[in-house]
Predict the structure.
Amino acid sequence: MLEIRDLLVEAGGRRLLQLDNLTLPAGQFVALLGPNGAGKSSLLKAISGEVGCRGELLFHGQSLRHWNPQERARHVAVLPQASSLTFPFSAREVVEMGLMPLSLSRQAGADVVRAAMIDADCLHLAARSFPGLSGGEKQRVHLARVLVQLVQAEKTPLLLLDEPVSAQDLGQQHNILRLAVRLAQQRGITVLAVLHDLNQVLRYGMRCLVLAEGELVADGEPEAVLTPHRIEEVWGYRPERYTTEERFALL
Amino acid sequence: MRIVKMTGSLLAGLMLALQVQAAEPMRLISADAGATNMIVALGLADSLVAVDVTSPASGDLAELPRIGYHRNLSAEGLLSLSPTHLVGTDHMGPDTTLSVLEGAGVELIRLPAAYSLPALESNLKTMAEALGREAQAQSLLDRFAAQTAELQTHSLKGNKVAFILSARGGFRLAGAGSNAGQAMIDLLGADNVADFENYRTVSMESLLAMEPDVILVAGEMSGDPAAALLDSQPLLAHTPAGKRGHIYSVDGASLVAGLSLAALDEAERVANAVGNPDPSSH
Amino acid sequence: MNRLPAIPAAAVLISLLMVGVVLSLTQGAVSMPASGSLTAIWDAVFSSDRSGLLSHEKVIVLELRLPRLLLAMLVGAILAQCGAVMQGLFRNPLADPGIIGVSSGAAVGAVLAIVVLPVAWQIWAVPTAAFVAGLLTTLLVYSLARSSAGTSVVMLLLAGVAVAAFAGAGIGFLSYFTDDTRLRELSVWQMGSLNGANHQLVLLALVGFVVLAIWFQRRAGPLNAFLLGESEARHLGVPVERMKLELIVLAALGVGIAVACSGIIGFVGLVVPHLVRLSCGPDHRRLLPLSALTGAVLLMLSDLAARTLVSPAELPVGLLTALLGAPFFLILLLQQRKQWSLSGA
């Protein structure tokens, strides 16, 4: 559904990311891993159109650049890493901004907003002032917003999550990851998430893409990809592997 | 504007009819210091109902309400004083205000700023005619003639005069052109040390290099601006003017709007003080 | 969060506006029966003659007070809306239309006209020069801030500051070569005054306001998204680069029209949107119309004070708005500083 070919992202003469071939099918939850500076942000930015790049990014067969902006907004949503909103909108108003590329009646819109806030576990924050929320709460509000944004997608949409669990407490982290899995499995959304916790990746079993120094060095099932040897190669740390009944974990 | 013109002519006609029947008392508003001086000199001080902020504020005039900056006059404000005449320079404004005033039957007397004696005389004649004081004007004009004659006998011809405007921050030198400093220098029959136009800030060194024979100092502060300037700029004593004691204070108020009657008096005073009419003795 | 609901707020403002209109029509240096003043308007519209006013009193009401209060309302509304839009565009509640270079450019244009042109031309030449120069400066600032990556808001700010500094130097330089009377002319103009109000200016301001209000309102939703961040807005389908250029040019036009009508009147664009935001929330769909109403009321009442407090003279209305606005601005700064230290920014 998303096909990437010969992607090259450069800045100031430096190669940030080079991907020859990558396909993300519908309904797949993909984890994007790699040390800092590996090119994860560059990949997300290239897909979301924030940086210029060379190569082909075909979304449902059509180059992303040629998608009509409104259509594209309904099909590709990005959860930002940080939020810079300082004006005192309420949390609900922020989520309501997700309605912008959509054409829904007021009542339908209100229902969609409510459902999204329940999914993202932030309905109880609806009337609070957004700037006053904690980092984690803000992230969940934005998550609700991007969920709203994708509600009217005609073709299977793409959700890009840039470190969606970094500001969350443990319980919330798992909530969000479970939500992402549900979105992928039940709604057919393709989710590409930048994650750092390898155990979470192992637990939720999504496809792993490992980037290092601007290149894709591994692509596959977590158990196959995240071997202690590979981890040492990429991150410079050799973990120990513990096996439980169902799965193994890394320390 | 058509409403204004129509009601204007209606009202003006009405006023003319009324005037024929009774000489109504004049109520004058002056928007210019020079005009105020002239009005007072023509003996019409009692007819003034308001003056502007640059006009002198002593004596009878102290109690009068002040109208604002002459380019930003308030029509309603002026009309509330029921004036018959508004006197000022040709820079008065804004236009809306003037149209409304004219429409309400107020006579506008616009006098260009006078920077020469003929200009001052012409203004005086215009004012006198408009206000029906030709007789008084004549006696003033005679006085002008006498003063001019005096000035010619005590002319400072051949002298280089520097006219300095002294303000809190420093001082500026009057250059050639239409400004009060040059007008004063012309009255004295002398030459301006400056070869530029308009007022400029000059350094003490440049001023020394110009070697003025006479220095006239007008200040915004009351008191003795010449003495104050000498205090703050002692090097002035090294100019030819300084060495011979020809540094004089001049009343700035008499020059703020161009030449005025008071300015003539000041010129006479300076000419007498300098004394020697023959430049070859220097 | 305590927020006033929009409709009641609008109703209150409209009532205040009407009270302001009545006051402005009936109060002034010349005293005349209040009912007469109001009836004079009726007379003018319906060609009747019920007011009982003298001819010159009617002229005062119809040619002086009426155009003036209309101009005050329109200029106030325009300045307030341009301020709100600028604050959205810069994502900063302290932004003011002046910072994108409009005021500095307009001032340079005015000084050039004052110093260079003969006095007789200046009545129309100064506002026109101010308007054109303001627009050109804004476009210059904008193009300085643009790069292949888009328009950086930070660069806009810096370029605006640089242009303002340059304009200040230019004005100083020009002032050096002019004489006193012309210099005084400039300082009066820089303090703003609605004294020259006439029907043509009212028409200009009306057309300007209607065009701007409609255009801005259509961008209200996207402006909200813009506050999330430029990338976020782009992801929501908002044409960010185009919107930035549009809004900057429109704001420059609006401020240019205001400056041409009444000289430089500051703080309205800063204070009004902020007050409205504090009371009714930051949603531009409400913020823009409510700011227009508030700006209209504020400037109309300020002008009423300006022309009656020191009668027969007048205070420049820009002085009054500065007197009100400067302390307010300081309080805003202090609040902002407190907010920053609380959130650890």
Q: What stands out?
A: Chain A touches chain C through 31 residues (CB under 8 Å). Residues 37 and 220 of chain A are 21 Å apart (CA to CA). The radius of gyration of chain A is 18 Å. The first strand of chain A starts at residue 2 and ends at 11.
